[in-house]
Design a protein that fits this description.
The chain is α/β, with parallel strands linked by helices and about 270 residues long. The chain folds into two domains: about 5-115, 3-Layer(aba) Sandwich (Pyruvate Kinase, Chain: A, domain 1); about 120-265, DNA integrity scanning protein, DisA, N-terminal domain (YojJ-like (1, 3-Layer(aba) Sandwich). About 30% of the residues lie in helices and about 25% in strands. The chain is built from eight helices and twelve strands. It has helices at about 5-10, 25-30, 60-75, 110-120, 125-140, 155-160, 180-190, 225-235, and strands at about 15-20, 35-40, 50-55, 85-90, 100-105, 150, 160-165, 195-200, 205-210, 240-245, 250-255, 260-265. Helix 4 packs antiparallel against helix 5. The two termini are about 40 Å apart. The structure holds adenosine-5'-triphosphate and manganese (II) ion.
Length: about 270
């Protein structure tokens, strides 16, 4: 019969690395002589860890937290496909209470981590817009597939490179993405033409914008139409990130610097 300690020993046997999520200084000190590679994951490296992966957001969901930190560590070349890591994390918000054993896989490299960390807009704003796009992709609008284009960050410049298709329902309002009511509005307005423009801090600046970037030097996969071309091109002309839901193939894509940086099937997310 196995004891609980043996069970736990199996969980951490032969791991290549240990991820500590937002440890306190004293907790971290206990691990500094560890044989395995130690990685601290947190919004900031307050414990002065040698190996640190920035996770700029608090994800409620432990699975997301683990997934994105592994992606961040892969981006940094710390781990690769097939490595096994033990993630030491707090699930209920207090002291560390959980150990998760994970095998690193290429499929974890979705591009989402880089989008959160390296966009000009606040990471939380990117996350909120991304989640609206994923949800719209899953459910559609009243059961029908719907497309949408969100241009996030550098809103002043984006406004200069676009024109209104209709009156702006967000004019003079001070609403932000992430607010549940706003998410309902975004979904409702997504049936109509044009792009949403969102500021770095998440303020919805406009709906119904027709983007007029120059398409010169934009490198976008063939077969994508005008919505994707405009979304991609505006990110070359400005420092914005574009998040696009395709009405025709149902995928969510993101563009940065004029390039496609992410392609995700909402059904599998
Ligand atoms: N320059 C633009 N700025 C803002 N919105 C645009 C622009 N061009 C197209 N759109 C929007 O994209 C919608 C779909 O256009 P189109 O089918 O050519 O794009 P697409 O890339 O194939 O997207 P989808 O995969 O959703 O069909 C248009 O009805 C319009 O609302
Ligand atoms: Mn189309």
């Amino acid at each position: 019969m196995a004891t609980l300690s043996e069970l736990l020993a199996d969980l951490v046997a032969d791991v290549d690395g240990v991820f500590l999520f937002s440890p306190s200084g004293s907790y971290y000190e206990q691990f500094t002589d560890l044989e395995e590679d130690l990685v601290v994951v947190a919004p900031e490296n307050t414990v002065g860890a040698e190996t640190f992966v920035e996770l700029p957001l608090e994800f409620d969901n432990v699975r997301d937290r683990v997934k994105f930190s592994i992606e961040g560590s892969m981006d940094r070349g710390l781990f690769e496909e097939g490595d096994v890591v033990a993630c030491v994390v707090s699930t209920f918000g207090g002291d560390i209470d959980t150990v998760v054993r994970v095998r690193v896989g290429e499929s974890m490299r979705s591009g989402v981590y880089d989008l959160f960390v390296n966009s000009r807009a606040d990471p939380g704003v990117i996350r909120d817009v991304f989640e609206v796009a994923i949800e719209l992709g899953k459910k559609g609008q009243k059961g029908k597939p719907v497309g949408a284009l969100f241009v996030v960050g550098d809103a002043g410049k984006v406004m200069n490179k676009s024109r209104p298709l209709s009156y702006n329902p967000f004019e003079k309002s001070h609403v932000h993405v992430g607010d549940p009511i706003v998410n309902v509005m975004l979904k409702e307005f997504s049936r109509l033409d044009g792009a949403f423009v969102v500021s770095d801090s998440g303020k919805i600046v406009s709906a119904y914008r027709y983007l007029e970037p120059s398409a010169e030097g934009v490198d976008i996969p063939k077969g994508l139409g005008a919505r994707h071309m405009a979304g991609g091109a505006i990110t070359r002309d400005t420092n914005a990130t574009a998040i696009v839901l395709s009405e025709s193939d149902g995928l969510v894509r993101a563009f940065k610097g004029g390039k496609l940086v992410l392609e995700i099937d909402p059904e599998e997310y």
